[in-house]
Amino acid sequence: MNLPPPALLLPLDIQIDPNSNGLPGIGELKQIVGASMTVGLILAVLALIISAIVWALGANSSNPHLAGRGKLGVLVALGAAIVCGASVTLVNFFWNVGQQV
């Protein structure tokens, strides 16, 4: 008996779209994610302020190690703010790219 490969047994036309009302609590989950993004942005601003202070103290006290740590902290805080702010856009972009595959 000659069976076709398993890949040919699967249906080729599957249409699944995100369902925003399929599970209870989706609205609350969206609010939790939005609140988490807000907390992330607030913490990024706090990290930016602290890192800028460390950078200034290191530069004014002729401590290159402290100044370097402050610079790195500023870059990390800015990167975190970019990721928090652009996360929805990035997910939507890659979702659309995945839909074209």
Lay out the secondary structure.
Blueprint: H1 6-9, H2 26-60, H3 64-99
Helix pairs in contact: 2-3
Structure description:
This protein has a domain at 35-101. The chain is built from 3 helices and no strands. The protein has helices spanning 6-9, 26-60, 64-99. The radius of gyration is 24 Å and the shape is elongated. The mean pLDDT is 88.
What descriptors fit this protein?
3 helices; 0% strand; 101 residues; 74% helix; mainly alpha
- Which strand-content bin applies to the residues? under 5%
Based on secondary structure, the structural category is: mainly alpha
* Average pLDDT taken over every residue: 88
Helix content: over 70%
Number of helices: 3
Q: What string, H for helix and E for strand, traces the elements in order?
A: HHH
> Span from first to last CA?
35 Å
